[in-house]
Specification:
Layout (H helix, E strand, L loop, with lengths): L14 H10 L26 H4 L12 H10 L11 E2 L12 H13 L6 H15 L11 E15 L2 E8 L17 E5 L5 E2 L7 E8 L3 E2 L4 E2 L1 E10 L5
Parallel strand pairs: 1-2, 4-9
Antiparallel strand pairs: 2-3, 2-6, 3-4, 3-5, 6-9, 7-8
Helix pairs in contact: 1-4, 4-5
Amino acid sequence: MLSRMRLMMPQRQPRSQALTMLVAGCMAISACASTTEQSSTGVLNGEPASTEEASLQYGDTIKGWPEEATAGAAQESQVVNDYPAGYELITWDDLLAPGFSNDEIFDRYADRLLELEDGSPEAAAIYAEMQAEADSADFVNEELDGTKVNLAGFVAPLTYEDDIVTEFLLVPYFGACIHVPAPPGNQTVLVSVDKADGLTMDQSWGAVWVAGTLTANSATTDLATASYTMTNATSGVYDENS
């Protein structure tokens, strides 16, 4: 989520807010999930299935992951959200190359920012440096190549079988993928599932989890380039309140 962001930050932000800006900086300038798209076997109809799903705002990210999932599993002594066992819960930051997480980039510039006046040209120049570093971070985390992981995100559908989404891009925020700029490759996962493990069009509107073996193989689609692929995966609706 860090790469290709537009850090429009005229005033200095508290640490937590600034990190949020780093994560969400590109959300206001790309979109896709609600756009009507023709796939190889179906059409996304452009209408959310419920009031809850309609309440999703462009740029919304996953909440409660993986803390809620871990806590729920511990309390109930079973897997919540019907997650399959044996998969490591990871976050989108885990997909970034070492040294380029939100915290790591921010920490490299935090002291310099604290010394500058809000909205000053010097502060703007620092944010430009942060942007340039983020733009250079489009690399994968090789340590995750070939590992069994479970990741929550949002769906950009690619292929349907009888209105079941069987191939899609998993992306970190709602509405990411069609309009320029798309999420960077290391924040995009090309997922293929069997029809039995696929998602209905209604389910694909909200947050989902996907479990499978992650490979650091780049793939180009009509919507975006994914630096990761996941085949023979399973998927389901992610409920942060479980």
